[in-house]
Every structure is written in C-alpha cells, then in structure tokens.
Amino acid sequence: MSTPADLSRPTSAAAAPLAQERIRFQLAWNRLLSVVEEQAQVLIRSAFGTATREAGDLSAGVFLPDGRMIAQAVTGTPGHVNAMAESVKHFLRVFPPESLKDGDVLLTNDPWKGTGHLFDMTMVTPVFHDGALVALFASTLHVIDIGGIGSSADGLEIYHEGLFLPILRFFRQHEVDPGVLAIIRANVREPEQVEGDLFALVACNAIGGRRLKSLLTEFELGGLDALGGYIIEQSEHAMRQAIAQWPQGTWHNTLVIDGYDAPITLQAGVSIANDKVRIDFTGTSPSVARGINVVKAYTDAYTSFGVRCLIGADVPNNAGSLSCVEVAAPEGSILNARFPAAVTARHIIGQMLPDVVFGALRQARADQVPAEGASSLWNLHLVGGEPLAGATPEQQEALLAGPRFNAVSFSTGGTGARPGKDGLSVTSYPSGVRNVSLEILESANPLVFEQKEYRPDSGGPGTQRGGLGQTIVVRHADPQAAMIIAAAFDRVVHPARGALGGHAGAGGQLGLAGGATLRAKGRQLIPPGERLVVQTPGGGGLGDPAGRDAERIDRDVRDGLVSLDQARTAYQQQQPA
C-alpha cells in the first residue's frame, strides 16, 4: 500500500533533482496520497452497494498518462489495486491518450483487462490541466449483481456469469452514454444499486481530478511526469534495497486446496536474485470448467502482495516497486486461465497465493513468515425470490414465496500465527475487506442472524496460536419462505497448515441446523424454517505447542477461545516424558 516515504534523499547523484526540488516533491507526494485517499473515501460515501460502502471492497489510484501507477489509496483490496495497476495500460491501448477528451470516462468489467471477474467495474478518467493530459484516475468496485447465474462458481464459462463490458466510453465529454447505461440496467437484477455504484465511480475519479489540478497549481507543476517519475524511481530503488537484504536462492512450496470437483495443486518456485523476486507457478493444476479459475492479472496481484508483506512492506506500492516482482504462470493453468474460462469465484484460489509464497520464503527466513490462514473469504451470498435448478415444485413455491433479495455478507476465518504473535481471529487477510454489520444486512434483506461469535478451538495450536474462525447462524425472516446459499468456500477438506511444529487450524463447515451437511461450493436450498450454520476455518499454529506457556493457555480458556479439552492436551504436552 502507498505510505509516506522520504523522497528527499536522491536515488543517485546524477538523477537527483536539486535539494529544494526534492523537498517540494516530498510535500507534493504527501498531498498526492491525500488526494487518492479522498478519492477512495468519496467512493465509500457515495456507493450504493454494501460491498463498497460497508466492506471497503474497492480500489483507487492515480496514474501517469502512459499508464504507470504513481500512488494508490490505503483503503482498498490488493486484488483490485494491484490488478488495476496493469489494467490502465489496457485502457490506453483501446483509447490512446491523443483520442481522449476532457470529460471522457472509460469503463470495463473484462476480467482479463480489469480485476478478474465480471462483478468488478473498473473506471478510468483522464485529467486535463491547461489543455494537456496530465494524469489518469482509476477506481474499481464490486457491484451487487451482473446478471447471469449470479455470484456462484457453477458457471462453465464466462458467458454464463453475466454481462461482459469491453473497454468503452461511459461518458463522452461530460455526458453519459445512454445506450451503455440502458444495456447495463437491462441485464442486472439490481439496476438502481448498480447504476448508483457506477456514478459513485464517476464521482470519486472526478474529485481526484479536481484535487490534483489544485495540487499542480499550488506547487507550480506543469504536470505529473517529473514528480511521478521521481516517485516511481525512488520506490524501485527502495524495493531493490529491501530485496538485497534477503538471502539469494530458489525455494519451492506446494499447497493443495479443496477445489470444486477435485483438489487443486498450487506449485510455486520463488527465486531471489539480481534485486528481483521471481515466482514461477509451473506445476500448478490446469484450469477447470467451473468458476474458480484465475486470470493472470489477479494472480499477479495477490502473488506480489504476498511478496510485499515480507519484503519492502514500507515501500510505496506503485509501478516502481511492483516492477521488482515478476510472476510466471503457465497459460491454461488455473492461475492463468484462457478466455472464456469461468472466473466468478476467482478469489477462492487467488487469495491463497500469499500462503504459497510464504511457504517458499519461510525456507529462506523462518523467523519472519507466518503460518497459513483461512485466507480466501467466506462470503455468504444469500438469495431469495428466485428459482433453483433441481428443486421440487414445493421447494420452488417456497423459494418464490418471499421477496426477491440478493445479500452478500463479507465473512472470514482466522489468519495464521505470526512470528512472536498469535494469529488474528476473524480477520480478512489477504483481502483486507471488512465484515459487514449484521444490522445493515438485516435492515436491507429479510434475514435474521441468530448467532455470530468466535469458534473455539478453531485456531491451530502452537507456541503462537492460529487465529480463530467464527460461527454464523442465519435464517429467512419468513418461516414459510426458502432461500438459496451460493456457496464459494474452501479450507474445508484441506485446512490451513501449521508451520515449524505448529498444528493445522480447523477446517470450515457448512450445514443446516437440522443436521444436513451442505457442499462448500454451488447453489443450494435452505428450506423454510431452517437455519444455515456456517463455521469458518481457523489459521495454522506456529511453533511447537509445548512452547506455549501456561499463563497464555489459561487466558485462552478464560476468554472462551480454547476449550478445557484442548487446554488439557496442551498442558500434557508440556510435561516431561
């Protein structure tokens, strides 16, 4: 993420501006970070969908006219920001700078040229100052619906998953294209929410542009090229210095996850050499005919984020620092899916990639790397008022008995234990999105959440304990109405592994209060009067559990995080043979 950095020290004597210019650049850089953060906050405050205004599932940033990212808002997700860093270049290939006019706004949800699936709308707005193109503001958010089969991994190819918008003009010189807007509204189940989110993107880019022009005037800058180029150069230099502090070599790691119809193998080789980090996913499983495939941009995004969590974490995230991380994935693999693969639930696999990177880099520096976590989000996508394939006539009647609704509750499990610290319970890592307030969900949808609490014993035992998952119980507010869960979960069969002697976290579980077990993926019925019971996974432990002192074990029991049975086991492990 972009953080204030000291730009007053030159990269090299030859390339350095004068001292006074460096100080001016430092001040302008701090202001630029404020600009992109305000851009993100405007998006949050004006968006209609809960994914953006409550969970923070978005990104915002500013780019040079050639498409290089200078700065990003701290608010946002790595999958959006790091994928968007490459996305803007695709926009410029379709609409070269000389073709853009003041007041134009560009839009796409192309997974291969955006951020990985059709639900993500990416918008790019050119900014003109004194008649010249000086920058591009880009932003992304996740809309509530995009048509097709909805938020489900059941699709076999992209055509099943909803409306596909190539890179196009949404605004032409300050005027919305009515045809584009009409097509979007006609293809989604929640047209008001989706339209509202699109105009929120327009607004956030517009405020970014206005603030940038004020900055340029105040600092007497004709454009962003000099400042942006210097920031990017400094960031690349700082990232290379951070890489140089790590051992040189190549390390490998394999992670097996649940997949849809069969387990998926993620294989990576991580090399550090010549001030670069290279990750090669050769040996990874091929793509599948389900909506869990990952486009290369999303693979790049979460892989580079995993690297940056360990190496150069305090270096601004932009084109300079990102250039030091190179990612290769065989075309046709599940991490580099070819068009028209289904990709709706690409987060299931993409958000596991930091764990894959960690497992390799732990071999280089075991003292700095956490254990595996739940990692991919456990979002509850609940749908009512629409039919379900395979349901009986009675079940279909119950599904249509209640009002139509489309709710997404962003939920998660525990992170892996960290060096010297326990894992974080119920924390969205690596996505960074927030859990959505139950009061918000219940006020907008016919839902009743009866339980939402920590899941004891779900964190993997270790000297440092893995973070806990959670237990969620929810039902339809109308006891005569049924609803659908569009499940897209992992870490059920293959839970988060512990490291350095730590134990695995608990696997996730999905079922009904009446006793039936539900599949971790796919659209399934929740009958009238039934309660859905969701237990999210825990993170893996770090270090031998015998190393956990009695005081911390007692505190875990007192706080309800660990049962007496698990505490007794821990005590026994501490006793001499």
Gyration radius (Cα, Å) is 24 Å
Overall mean pLDDT stands at 94
State the end-to-end distance. 48 Å
Name the overall outline. globular
Number of helices: 14
Secondary structure class reads alpha+beta
Low-confidence runs (pLDDT<50, min 5 residues)? none
Total strand segments: 19
Oligomer: single chain
Helix content: 25-40%
- The largest sheet has its strands arranged as 2-1-5-4-3-6-7
Can you walk me through this structure?
- It is a single chain.
- This protein is of the alpha+beta class and 577 residues long.
- The protein is 30% helix and 20% strand.
- It contains 14 helices and 19 strands.
- The strands form four sheets. The protein has a seven-stranded antiparallel sheet, with helices on both faces. Strands 8-9-10-11 form a four-stranded mixed sheet.
- Helix 1 runs antiparallel to helix 5 (191-218) and helix 13 (550-558) runs antiparallel to helix 14 (564-574).
- The longest helix has 28 residues, at 19-46.
- 55% of the residues are buried.
- The model has no long low-confidence stretch (mean pLDDT 94).
